[in-house]
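User: I'm writing a tutorial on reading structure tokens. Could you give me a worked example: one chain, its sequence, then its tokens, then a sentence or two explaining what the tokens reveal?
Assistant: Sure. Here is the example chain.
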Amino acid sequence: MPSEDTFLRRAVAVLSAFRADDDGLGAAELARRSGLPRSTAHRIALDLVEAGLLERQGTRVRLGLALFEIGQRVPRQRVLRDAAVPLMSDLREATRQTVHLAVLEGAEVVYVEILGSPGGPPLPSQVGGRLPAHVTGVGKAILAFSPPEVVRSVLAAGLVRASGRGVPAPGLLARELARIREEGVAYDREESGSGIVCAASPVLGPDGEALGALSVSGRPTRMRLAAVAPAVHTAALTLSRTLREKARDPSA
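And here are its predicted structure tokens:
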């Protein structure tokens, strides 16, 4: 019988095998991605189905509603999202572009909420999805207001390329982060995907460190970064102030 610790590590490997755009995985693919023997991955998946963390879909399994419900209880993301959504709606109305809210996890950003805009370009981002922090506006906005050790860990993870644009050298990224600290706005000029630009601004906590970031994304032919940057910056400042007020008075 495997120990509880072994079972937990295997269960995490199975759950981590799913990507944001997966609707379901078969036994062979689940085993391949998790690195587990097929019989082991199948047995773990059945246990997770019984717990509601996975759901059956014919001969495949997909992430279950129970897992989503647990994720919604994460305090930082829930409080951040709940405070951000009204401002994000206003920002989308003002810019007519797609608005993102993201947080940093390791060397990647995780998208907490996305309000799409009709006619916008296909985006590589989706709620719950991840992208390398250094190629996104939200990621660079967060890194610019993060402790030095966080930036060092991102550099140590390697600066991979996500589009046809070249990989930034560490020195260039450091200079860009310094500019962002001065101006309060970060830009993605087709670094996260071809035909996509974005302006982003950090959401700051009471200590001045980034809790997350807001961004507006669109086509370079339809959206002027200089025009939307002030609106994004204002929304992020307002959200930062709202969160500080909630921290002082949780009943507000």
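What the tokens reveal: Residues 34 and 76 are 28 Å apart (CA to CA). The chain has a mean pLDDT of 87.
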